[in-house]
Amino acid sequence: MDFMINMFNLRNCTLVKNKAFEKIVRGKEQRRRDLSELSFKEKIHILVELQKMAKGVTMHGKTADRIVWQI
Amino acid sequence: MEKTLKFIKELKEKKVLKDFSIGGGIAALYYIEPLLTYDLDIFFIPIKDGIDVLAPIYQYLKEKGFKAKKEHVWIEGVPVQFIPVYNELVKEAVQHSGEVKYGRIKTRVLGLEYLIAVMLQTFRPKDRERLVKIFEEAKIELKLLKKILRKYGLYDKYVQFKELYFGEK
């Protein structure tokens, strides 16, 4: 794994040590934890919304077709 | 999705496969925040060993009118990929899967600690990305995780990973 950037060092860089930025980072972490508590069904609903967004982003590019679950 | 999971469950009830469990991105999503993924990976234990373990599943699906497209079968609007258990770790992971509910349907998802072990074993960039999220967000039974990792020779890789991404020694 020597070729990989040391993510721990990256997180501890000067930018992250800025107090305002740290507050934003902590807020994002809390948001992610809250989202992880959602029910399986709610998460799948969000997943389909993410698929729709991703399809919108890539449809004019040359990337592979992005599918959206028909549920 | 409920119809998809109900149909997959039916494969076990009709003895088309011995056992199954949801793995991959959807299993990760079960434990952490929603993440973008495009298919539903189903790890399964075949009804009998052989060269073409997928044949009975594909035959059954064909009879039911479902169509295969590349490596997926579209079941009720969801592209499903059936993956036979390819080593002892994955087999044990399927056997130790927990039952979870999706709406009114009971299905099976790889246990969190087994999912981590499988991801550490495959270790593709997307596995590493999901592992970071799992270690940040999920409630992991460390004792069980370490036991599994030691059994399958993945413990050193885990320590290296934790050191690299979380600065833990």
Commentary on this structure:
The complex is a heterodimer of chains A (71) and B (169). Chain A is an all-alpha fold and 71 residues long. Chain A has helices at 7-11, 14-17, 19-36, 40-58. Chain A is extended. The mean pLDDT of chain A is 78. Chain B is an alpha+beta fold and 169 residues long. Chain B is built from eight helices and seven strands; from the N terminus they run αβαβαβββαββαααα. In chain B, helix 4 (88-95) runs antiparallel to helix 5. Classes of the chains: A mainly alpha (71), B alpha+beta (169).
Give a short summary of the structure.
The complex is a heterodimer of chains A (71) and B (169). Chain A has helices spanning 7-11, 14-17, 19-36, 40-58. With 71 residues, chain A is mostly helical.
Which helices and strands appear, and what pairs or packs with what?
The complex is a heterodimer of chains A (71) and B (169).
Chain A: H1 7-11, H2 14-17, H3 19-36, H4 40-58
Chain B: H1 2-13, E1 17-23, H2 24-31, E2 40-46, H3 55-63, E3 68-69, E4 72-75, E5 78-84, H4 88-95, E6 98-102, E7 105-109, H5 112-122, H6 125-137, H7 142-151, H8 155-166
Parallel strand pairs in B: 2-5
Antiparallel strand pairs in B: 1-2, 3-4, 4-5, 6-7
Name the features:
heterodimer, A: 71 residues, mainly alpha, 4 helices, 65% helix, B: 169 residues, alpha+beta, five-stranded mixed β-sheet, two-stranded antiparallel sheet, 8 helices, 49% helix, globular
Q: What is the oligomer described by this structure?
A: heterodimer
How many helical stretches of chain A?
Answer: 4
> What gap, in angstroms, lies between the N and C termini of chain B?
42 Å
Largest sheet: number of strands, sense, barrel closure of chain B: 5 strands, mixed
